[in-house]
Amino acid sequence: MPKPTAQAPAPASNGRPADAKPGKRVGIRDVARLAEVSVATVSMVLNHNPKITAATREKVRRVMEQTGYQPNRIAQSLSSKYTRMLAVILPTVRHVLADPYFGELISGICDRAERRGHKVVLEHAKPDWVRDRRHLELFDRRFVDGALCVGFNDHHGFLQDFGKNGWPMLSVNSEFPQWGIDHVVSDYAGGADQVMTYLFQLGHRKIGMVHGAFEIATARVVCEVFGQRVDEAGLGLDNTWLEDGLFTEVGGRDACERLLARHPDITAIFAGNDKMALGVMHQLALMGKRVPDDVSVVGYDDLQHAAFVNPALSTVHVPLYEVGVRAADRLIELIRKRTDSVSEVLPTHLKLRGSTAIAPR
To answer: Which DSSP symbol is given to 306?
Structure first.
C-alpha cells in the first residue's frame, strides 16, 4: 500500500495555517511552507527581486493575504541598505491635504510608491520643524530613503540642505534653478503660450492676467510668457493689467474686481490656476458680466471641478497625478543610484470648454 505524500497544512477558515497555535503570529517560514517555496524566495518577493517569476510572486502574495502575514519592516530596514520609506514634505498651507492640487500629486506619489514596495510618510515643514533640523533627522536616523517636496517656493531655503548633505530629494511640480535641485515639473511655459495663442485667435486684445505669487517659479513663468506674448503683439498692456490672485478663489474674485475697476473694457482674463479662475467667474457674475459673451476666462491646472461649473472652464491641463507618479519613480532611481540627476518636464495642453468665445465687438 503506497504511503500518502506529505502535504502542507491548508489555511484554516480564518486564513491562518491549520496547525498554527492560537495567538501565534504567522511567520515567514509559515508562508514559505504553505506556498511550497523556500524562505529565501519569500524574502525575494518581499524585496521585489526581479528574478522571481510573476507566477511565484502571485502564489506567495496570495498566501500572505490568506494568512494575514505582516512583514517586520523595522527588521527588514535594519538588515537592508534601504528602509523602503519615502517622505512627502508639505508646506504649512491651510487645509493642504484637502486641496485638490496637492491631492492629485500626493495620490500619484502614494500609488506608485506602494506599487514599488515603498511606504510614504507625510511631514509638514512647520517653522520649528525646520529650525530644529528635523528634515535632516529623517535621513540621519534612517527614517526614510528619500524625500519629495511639494508646494514650496523661493523662501524655503532649507531645501538646499538636502543637496549639501547628499540626501536624495526631488522637488515635485516646482523648480529651483538657483539651487540646482532635482525636479519633475509640468511645462508651464508651453501651457501659457497655448492660452495666449488661442485668445489672440479669438480676437482678444484687452487681456487681464490674474497671477500667483512671484516667489513660485512656475507662477513667474506663466506671467513671463503672458508679458512676452503681449509685447510681441504690440498691445501696449502695462502692469495695470496684472493682479495677484493669491492662488485662491477669494483672491481671484478680488483681483477681478480691481482689474475691471481700472479696465472695464477687458474682454478676457487669464488666471494662473483654476481656483483663481473660479473666483474671477464669480465676480464677473456679480458685476452683471456674462461669461463668455462679455468676458472670456481661462484657468490653469484642469482640476476635476473645472468641467462642472457653468459655463465649464477652459483651462490648461496639468498632468498632476502623472507628475506624482513620475516623481516617485525618479526618486527611487536616485536612491538606488540608477541616475545622478533628474530634470524632467511633462507636457501640458489646453482644454477648451464653454468659458471662452470670440472677443465681443
So the answer is: G
Tell me 360's DSSP state: P
Residue 83 phi/psi, 5-degree rounding, is -90, -20
Extended beta strands in the chain, E state: 85-90, 119-124, 146-150, 169-172, 183-186, 207-211, 242-244, 268-271, 296-301, 314-317, 343-346, 349-351
| Cβ-based neighbours of 134, under 8 Å, separated by 6 or more | 123
Q: What is the full DSSP assignment across 215-268?
A: TSHHHHHHHHHHHHHHHHTT----GGGEEE-TTSHHHHHHHHHHHHHH-TT--E
Residue type at 265? Answer: D
Residue 135 has what pLDDT? 93
Q: What are phi and psi of 287, to 5 degrees?
A: -90, 5
- The pTM assigned to this predicted structure is 0.79
Distance from CA of residue 170 to its chain's centroid? 11
Which residue carries 525575494 as its cell? 44
207: which 3 cell numbers?
A: 487681456
Vertex 201, ends 195 and 205: CA angle to 5°?
80
Range 152-161 contact pairs with CB under 8 angstroms and sequence separation of 24 or more: 152/91, 152/125, 153/91, 153/213, 153/215, 153/216, 153/217, 154/178, 154/215, 154/216, 154/217, 155/215, 156/91, 156/125, 158/125, 158/130, 161/133, 161/135, 161/136
194-223 tens-digit pLDDT: 999 999 999 999 999 999 999 999 999 999
- First-to-last alpha carbon distance for the chain, in angstroms, is 100
Within 245-357, residue ranges assigned H as helices are 249-262, 274-286, 320-335
327 burial level (CB within 10 Å; 0-12, 13-18, 19+): buried
Query: Among all chains, which residue has been given the C-alpha cell 518577493?
Result: 45
Cα gap 271→8, rounded to integer Å? 65
C-beta separation of 196 from 356 below 8 A: no
Evaluate if residue 346 carries a pLDDT over 80. yes
